[in-house]
Amino acid sequence: MRNLLEFLAKYYNWFLFVILEIVSCLLLFQYNNYQGSVWINSANVVNGKLLELSSSIEAFFSMSKANEQLTLRNFYLERQVGQLRRLYTEATGDTLTPDAGQMELLERYKLVPAKVVGSTLDRQDNLMTIDKGSADGIEPDMGVVSGLGVVGVTFLVGDHYSVVMPVINTKTRISCVIRGRGYFGYLQWDGKESGIAYLEDVPRHARFKKGDWVETNGYSSIFPPGVMVGKIVQTYNSRDGLSYKLKVQLATDFGNLRDVSIITDKELIERARLLETARDSLRQMRRE
Questions:
Q1: Model-level pTM?
Q2: Is residue 29 classed as helix, strand or coil in its secondary structure?
Q3: CA distances from 5 to 2, 173, 269 (A)
Q4: SS3 21
Q5: Residues facing residue 153 across a β-bridge
Q6: What's the rounded Cα separation, in Å, for the pair 244 and 234?
Q7: Which of 176, 150, 152 is nearest to 244 (CA)?
Q8: Cα–Cα nearest to 132, from 110, 158, 111
Q9: Pairing of the two strands 243-250 and 196-203
Q10: Contact 39/29 with Cβ under 8 angstroms?
Q11: pLDDT digits (tens), the chain, 288 positions
């Protein structure tokens, strides 16, 4: 108490000055119309700026959430369109009733939304880091997609982060099919343009045209069938002349990629592990 009194006694002049200033300002703005209106207008401007800043911050975080939801929604819609397209092709007459088994296939896939927190575009071994890991149910060799199409495959998984090997990595190979044509090949990047990859080993008897879409065929044990990959823009002969090499404009814009989803389908994981076990067994048999 004594220290407080000594402090007040030491600085009472300053306290008195501040109090008198506050009282004078109150009297000035309260009893003078012009000064009062200036004060109100200034206060409204400051208050408006603060509300605008608060609204911008809130909009930024809500936009981030909306992007995640749109990414998930776009993927599901793309899958539904693919399934309905197949049903239409196989249907007889005018029937377009979805088969129960096909619709259950759509429900089986669980997607985990994630943010891209780091990536490279100018290397042959490009990698991407996302903010989801084993704590979120992520494992190696899971497919990663965006709202537009295929992104890549999980490579290394930590507790809260994962490294993805994207399509634009020369070591990535994804089994694909030309939509509506049924001809298969595997997608590989040549290490040059980030928006272009090549569909290799397309059979020589295949029939297709420029502008046809390429999608996953479901044989890779990582991606379900029907996930968008890109569009055919040019055709080449393979080096041996026995197959085609197709230039594909990728649907995913890797230079502007922020929101992705990881496919955590347990059946796909089981198939991938079973396939890997079979390959290991074959290698062991060859050694023996």
A1: 0.62
A2: helix
A3: 5, 79, 74
A4: helix
A5: 143, 165
A6: 10
A7: 176
A8: 158
A9: antiparallel
A10: yes
A11: 667 667 667 776 777 777 777 776 666 656 666 555 555 555 545 554 565 566 456 555 545 555 655 655 566 565 555 555 555 555 544 433 434 443 444 456 678 888 888 888 888 899 999 999 999 989 888 899 887 889 999 989 988 999 999 999 999 999 999 988 888 899 999 999 989 999 999 998 888 999 999 998 877 667 888 888 999 999 998 887 788 999 999 999 898 888 888 888 766 666 666 666 766 677 677 666
CB proximity list for 118: less than 8 A, separation 6 or greater: 128, 129
**Alpha helix segments (H runs only) across the chain:** 2-31, 33-90, 100-108, 266-287
Token pair of 131, please?
A: 């903010």
* Contact by Cβ (8 Å): 214, 230: yes
Query: Token pair 């703005």 is at which residue?
Result: 29
Q: Are 37 and 28 contacting, i.e. CB atoms less than 8 angstroms apart?
A: no
Size (the chain), residues: 288
